[in-house]
Specification:
177 residues, 3-stranded antiparallel sheet
């Protein structure tokens, strides 16, 4: 009887442990390839499409004024538009444009796509693109920001996310702070 009980107990344990295994279908991933360690992922954002996102799922942006790869967003600007920090060689999901690294004026390194510096917007939560087609000014420097699409192109205007006149002056007005 003891041997039968031990055999049944062992069989039940095997069934329970088999049920704990993963078939790969549970959970979700923000990257097209499923590799959560990528620097840049692709994420679907309503009203915009497939955009580039950081490892937290926050939309990545580039400004028209930095198209030549020159860093202009410094000081107060970078407290609203957070540079995507480079820690080693950046990686991306398949099909994403050419990633690179640029040196910022403060000595830190920032990820670029096709030479354009990448930023997140402090007012976004993962899956949002509130900064798409947003215009602001810091000091005497004007910026127009666009979500970066999966192919590296700049997104057009998203519904309800247009420019805010007078937003983002050096005093921070227009950002809700």
């Amino acid at each position: 009887m003891k041997r039968l009980f031990t055999s049944v107990t062992a069989a039940v344990a095997v069934v329970i442990l088999a049920g704990c295994g993963s078939n790969g279908s549970s959970g979700s991933s923000d990257t097209a390839s499923g590799n959560a360690t990528e620097t840049v992922a692709v994420k679907q954002v309503d009203g915009v499409g497939n955009v580039l996102a950081d490892s937290s799922g926050r939309t990545l942006y580039a400004s028209d004024e930095e198209a030549n790869g020159k860093i202009l967003c410094t000081g107060t600007c970078s407290s609203f538009w957070t540079p995507l920090a480079a820690d080693g060689t950046p990686t991306a999901a398949p099909g994403v444009g050419q990633l690179g690294v640029i040196d910022r004026p403060d000595g830190t390194k920032q990820v670029t796509i096709d030479g354009r510096p990448l930023y997140t917007f402090t007012q976004d939560s993962p899956g949002q693109a509130k900064g798409n087609d947003f215009s602001d000014e810091f000091g005497s420097q004007h910026f127009t920001w666009h979500a970066v699409m999966a192919d590296g192109a700049m997104a057009g205007s998203a519904p309800g996310n247009g420019s805010t006149p007078g937003a983002g002056t050096s005093s921070g007005s227009g950002y809700g702070y």
